[in-house]
Amino acid sequence: MTVAATEPRVVAARRRVPRGSARRHIIAAATELFARRGYEATSVQEIVAAAEVTKGALYHWFGSKSELLTSIYRELLAEQTARLRDIAEGPGPVQERLRAAALDVVAHTADHVDELTVWARSAHLLDDEQAEATRRERRAYHDLFRDLVREGQDAGVVRTDVSATVITHMFLSALGNTHTWFRPDGPLTFAEVGEQLVALFVGGLRP
């Protein structure tokens, strides 16, 4: 009786990202897919495939796709808030700190324009609990910026005929809505647009 020789079965192992870097890869993949395809049109399976991780790894770090979206924004907001606090509590005349704070939020936004654009377009899809948590953190950032404006008003270097709250919302809203009309193939970069917004902001503060 002839026994057919059999070759050992070789199963190619699917490539996986190194242990410890899965979370970073998930966030990067999700950001790229959300920006290119939209949050609603992107599936969890597409995210894990692009990130080269298992679905279990994604759910280890994030309870859902909406939690992933929220985490991307909240981490950027926490970073932005820490930077603003360092500037607000730092040395120098208040008018210089105000200008530095405005330039810093522009620079940070330009560095993370994809993530922030995804958030601006998709935040309304979150459930009430997630939305309220991010609103609280966003209000804390606004309050910190507003207090710096008020310090300028108290020092006599910022106009007082407009409330600090209106000044703050005017600048941050203008910057936050830039994604609705900015075009990467236009004559200005996002950073240049932001710098022009800062010029208008600083110029409009003078008493």
UniProtKB/TrEMBL annotation:
Ranges for domain HTH tetR-type: 20-80
Database matches in SUPFAM superfamilies: Homeodomain-like, Tetracyclin repressor-like, C-terminal domain
Pfam name, any one: TetR_C_24
Segments of the chain annotated as binding DNA: 43-62
Keywords: DNA-binding, Repressor, Transcription, Transcription regulation
Keyword Transcription set for record: yes
UniProt GO molecular function: DNA-binding transcription factor activity; transcription cis-regulatory region binding
InterPro entries reported for this sequence: Homeodomain-like_sf, HTH-type_TetR-like_transc_reg, HTH_TetR, KstR2_TetR_C, Tet_transcr_reg_TetR-rel_C_sf
Keyword Repressor appears in the UniProt entry: yes
Name of the protein in question: TetR/AcrR family transcriptional regulator
